[in-house]
Amino acid sequence: MKHIISALVENKPGVLAHVAGMFAARAFNIDSLVVGRTEDPQLSRMTIVVVGDDNVVEQVRKQLAKLIPVVKVQDFVGKPVVARDLMLITISVPPEKRPELLSMIEMFKGKVVDIGHKFVTVEVSGPEAKIEAFIDMCRPYGIKNVARTGTIAMVRHSTATP
Amino acid sequence: MSNESNSSAESANQSALKPGSQIIVDTLVELGVDTMFGYLGGVILPLFDKLYDAPIKLIVPRHEQGGCHMADGYARASGKVGVIVATSGPGACNLVTGLATAMMDSIPVVALTGQVRTELIGNDAFQEADTTGITRPITKHNSIVKDVKDLARTIREAFYIASTGRPGPVLIDIPVDVEVARAAADDCPKMELPGYHVKTKGHPRQISTAASAINKSERPLLYVGGGVVRADASEELDALVQKAHLPVTMTLMGLGAFDQTKPESLDMLGMHGSAYANYAVQNCDLLIAVGARFDDRVTGKIKSFAPHARIIHIDIDPASIAKNVKVDIPVVGDAKLILAELIPQVEYRQRQEWFERIAEWKKKFPFCYDNNSSTIKPQYVIEELYRQTGGEAIITTGVGQNQMWTAQFYKFKRPRQLLSSGGLGTMGYGLPAAVGAQAARPEATVVDVDGDHSFNMTLTELATAVQYSLPIKVCIINNGYMGMVRQWQQLFYNKRYSYSYLSNPDYAAVARALGAGGITCDKKADVSKTIKTMLSEKGPFVVDFKVEREENVWPMVAPGRDLHDMDGLDILESLV
After folding, report:
1. What SS3 state is found at B256?
2. How many CB pairs under 8 A join A and B?
3. Domain segments of chain A: what residues?
4. Do A2-75 and A82-155 share a fold?
5. Are residues B72 and B219 located together in one domain of the fold?
6. Which of A138, B67, B152, B327 has the most neighbouring CB atoms within 10 Å?
7. pLDDT tens track for A76-92
């Protein structure tokens, strides 16, 4: 099962190596790992997606918490969360197929960020499944490049989705 | 303000600043360090220059690995933090085995390593190595100090991290320009560790649940590890055992946590543990683990471990709990505090049937060996050492058969009496650990019971013992093999003794050449008087005991087998 683990870590050199090294040394599999600064310059947030049964993920959580530069660890499993990926994707497309592609991009609420005679680069964000679906839809055109951020997530504080 | 007063204020200010090297020394003194270990090298020279006048005794090993084991042995014997200093590159790399040893056994060691100048880092400079990168997985924590203002704080944090919670080694990497740069002494008085919280007090409800489980149990068993030693919780453990009337078994790391000469002791459990301890584990209805981590050498096949037992697990490291086995009653916290809270809540129960069953196993399968041979039996040497030291010596070991026989045939009465590399299984640990232990406890009799091949790995440190007049004794259990490896080859590889033999030098002569005393003992009749001679020697002394070459350690739970499925019981039974 996929678990999204969110860790608040000290914003210091070597912290990413500490975390990544621990995952490798203990043979835990990382699906994705995203690091970014927070509103507090002393702290960064790591969002880590791991796959494993409950025992494995409990160990991941405990071993993470044990690292000195890791301030707080949360496992979002079972909680209502907003989880998002961001992707930039460059698609080969001849001019005659462009309108069809653009309407598909619109359906996915994507945004064209670069365009040439034979390609477009699109920015898409959303849940992982949506990103995967978009990639799938682009395959018939020909995908030149994909860059994805991996998942970031936050617990929902209300049930309302705007 | 005139120019003149301005510049004098500046120079006064300047003189209030101390170089990083002095800050290191002052901080170490402030933290109570009076003895440390260290080897010199280019980028650590500013620190050594300050150590020249410091009120700290510095012991220089012959190799940084030895120095790191010395700091470890010092820490294990004294309960204080052991300190090792090394230079960059090769110096730091040589610490790796020592740090990993300390990490696996949760020993508080602080390593200070020199590093190349900050602006050279990453340039493959002379004697540069990525020390923090190399040692990250084998330290509890490590960091590099790039600003002299962070130096004192980082050292204080290192001592705090190393010695609290589940202890472990901490390394600080210090570029040479940071040793030279100046800062005010009190620039950084506070520790900043937002991610380090040690939970020492056990949850009251969990403790009372544990107490009622103990009170209800017909067949309880305490399974005690090195955590009880680290927590100085032996008194509380003994009080709990007496109050509730519980049998106790210990891991290799836990030996001495409970007095093995007391009737409640079932000695060591596990792969080469006692049959009575292993049977007790497999038959108990409640297993109370304290400061132990369910290591594979203890549990045998994990699925069939303690099959009838509910499990209480008391440990300071939450990550240790439910790592290998499912735990029914976890209690996170300091063993000393938790046991103290447990004692008033437990009731005395006779448990006659249970203790009788254990007594029967004890009678049927004691640790024993056939001493009728003409050769010297390794177990006999250890028994005789036990007898002549009155069970009071500090014993260090190598790794392998020598270590297991020591664990089986020396009865430890107190914590910090057995110093052995349990987790990592580091051959060559015994001698330098003995040097460190003797430095910590000058009045104590310190004996390294070593294997011939283990001893060979770090024997150069005998010169260190000689130089610093540390009167350690070494009993080499010399069977001319990597004994445990040979035993495995005999049992699991069809007796094909592939490369498990190295030609040994004359160790007594080597010892004498290094300035220690040394004799060889190859006659059974001489063992007793040789040990007597050794113990009466004023200086470091080595005895090379030429023992039975193919003696095996029994009982043995072959890897992956059930804990009660022991080989060699027929041999033990036939000898009773």
Report:
1. coil
2. 42
3. 2-75, 82-155
4. yes
5. no
6. B67
7. 998 999 999 999 999 99
